[in-house]
Amino acid sequence: MKTFLWTAITLTEILSRAAAQCRCSRYLCRSGENEYSYTIEEMPSQEIIQCILSNKAYNPRGDCRYCSSCDGSLCTCQTSGTCESFLPRAAAVVCFALGLLLLVITVRSTWKWAQRTVLVRVRPDELPENQVRPEVPMKVWERNPRVSVLLPCVGAVLFLIVGVVVWASPDLINQSQGSP
């Protein structure tokens, strides 16, 4: 318990120091090849106003809407995708977990289906006359390979692909918006 409290206090101190180091006295707005540095207290030029209004990371007043990256007291506003990277990462982890679960179901169903249809433990000519081939107990849905093997396999592949796309989505959004 003491270790947990010490870790929580240490983490809180680190976060407060990081927030304290990022005091924005000047802001930097990029529009194409142009960079504009300004303060909120001054009346900005028309170019700076156009830069601020064309970038969704800035409030119309000129300060940051979401969060900022600081270089001393010069701050560059970041997009929401950069600031809120926890939710896409958590969603991607859930997609990966569901994909792996469906892969396990696929492997298990493939093994059971193969035991029932392909792998014969006793050759039929070696069985006594009254005995039938041993049956592998299967549920109704496991008897159809399209349902028991193909469907979970397709679901697993789709979940894994969606997981990769969601994991990379903050970076893709930032690249499409042209932020550094």
From TrEMBL:
The chain crosses the membrane at residues 86-107, 147-168. Keywords: Membrane, Signal, Transmembrane, Transmembrane helix. It comes from the Eukaryota. Residues 1-20 form the signal peptide. This is Uncharacterized protein. It comes from Cladocopium goreaui.
